[in-house]
Write a structure and sequence with these properties.
This is Nicotinamidase-related amidase. GO terms for molecular function: hydrolase activity. The chain is of the alpha/beta class and 187 residues long. It is globular and about 45 Å long. A six-stranded parallel sheet has the order 3-2-1-4-5-6. It has one domain: Rossmann fold (3-Layer(aba) Sandwich), CATH 3.40.50. The longest helix has 17 residues. The protein contains six helices and six strands.
Length: 187
């Protein structure tokens, strides 16, 4: 874990902290992930930096060995958690695939804001977070991953993403490290 710097044009992207996802059994307590994500949200908003809240309302079509969800989600499944304190200035991205960039306006929004770096947090590490990190990296964005502000449905998948995949896509660190670097860079 080695965070070096934060760009001046940075955005926070919080993935799938919604009722239906946070209610699932995860490797780390969802309440801790929400608490750390809220700390990031508060800091980014305080500094007037772009905040993107992502939710998921469906899945990509196609066959998989594990099957896929084919019906409607229960009422309230996609509702963002009230703890996130969604603001009018937050950009909402509703996705129907794993990654927040596919078939959404996220890339255009970040370009419009002049963003050169994203900080990622959310659930699930190996699914929504990793897919979004891969695409951000491919777009040429600097990627920072707040690894203690994310979890997965599977502990091994979380560990694999954090230890093997994320160091190849960006820089990893804790929420506190991101917050400290943000405060130093904005002082």
């Amino acid at each position: 874990m080695a965070l070096t710097t934060l760009d001046t044009q940075i955005a926070l992207v919080v993935i799938d902290l919604q009722r239906g996802i946070v209610a699932l059994p995860t490797a780390h307590p969802g309440s801790e992930i929400v608490e750390r994500s809220v700390a990031l949200l508060d800091a980014f908003r305080r500094h007037g930096l772009p905040v993107v809240l992502v939710n998921v309302t469906g899945g990509a079509p196609g066959r998989t060995d594990q099957g896929r969800h084919t019906g409607d989600f229960p009422a309230g499944f996609a509702d963002l958690l009230p703890e996130l304190k969604q603001q009018p200035s937050d950009h909402l991205v509703t996705k129907r695939t794993w990654g927040a960039f596919t078939n959404t306006d996220l890339a255009a929004y970040l370009r419009e804001q002049g963003v050169t770096q994203v900080v990622l947090a959310g659930i699930a590490t190996s699914i929504g977070v990793e897919s979004t990190a891969r695409f951000a990296n491919e777009l040429g964005l600097n990627v920072t991953l707040a690894v203690d502000a994310m979890t997965d449905l599977n502990a091994d998948a979380h560990t694999n993403s954090v230890t093997r995949i994320f160091p190849r896509l960006g820089e990893t660190g804790t929420t506190q490290e991101v917050l400290d670097l943000l405060e130093r860079s904005r002082a």
